[in-house]
């Protein structure tokens, strides 16, 4: 397949992961549904956690140089099967800044949902365009979630480019009874890519994405990749050209945000964690062999 036409801007460089720590506070009972919580809070009251604290400790860009202490714990897991396209209500400074100062609060991302409010509680993890965020506030009357977004998250993902009215892919974290329809997605975005080409093929759509080498080296044909949190099968990878592509069938096009984007738009990318483990294991073997030969 011929490489896609060049675009005006190169894909953003890969940066370290972000760990979001859940804030403290009293959570509603797991048995209580949204109607019960709404009745207890009153129609105008918003349920809200204290602003979450964020770990900004960088993860080494090279997995081969990562030490055991840099291991990222898996707190939530997703499948990459988008449950709903939510609608951004607001992205801006928190309406109620934390008292006593402290760390920079980042921004609040308020998202309207039609179906995901039921069964979701404060402190739950939701993948928003593939970025694992913690539900910090719930407004049953407005049918919205609010997430705290740290400055580091804005630098590492495309969430900072969202505006009121934009659609975002939403998926709640796996439960023990969930069907595994996609692949293991952590919601730890590896970096951003850039849409290089959109080409219809019957009722399907070919999408070509430019990506940095740190991500491309973890992608293989027929392997998995999460693009804006959507589990997709890679068709081709061109390391020299700096791109990979995949195809969206009609159903997928109708249920995710990606087809509404245009050439040049950023997308969040997360490579399959299996490739990361293999890379680290092989790097360790190579390093051990080099020491043995010296």
UniProtKB/TrEMBL annotation:
Residue ranges, annotated region (Disordered): 22-68
Lumazine-binding repeats: 77-183, 184-282
GO molecular function: riboflavin synthase activity
E.C. numbers: 2.5.1.9
Assigned keywords, A-Z: Repeat, Riboflavin biosynthesis, Transferase
InterPro entries noted in UniProt: ATP_synth_asu-like_sf, Lumazine-bd, Lumazine-bd_dom, Riboflavin_synthase-like_b-brl
Name of protein: Riboflavin synthase
Species, as recorded: Urochloa decumbens
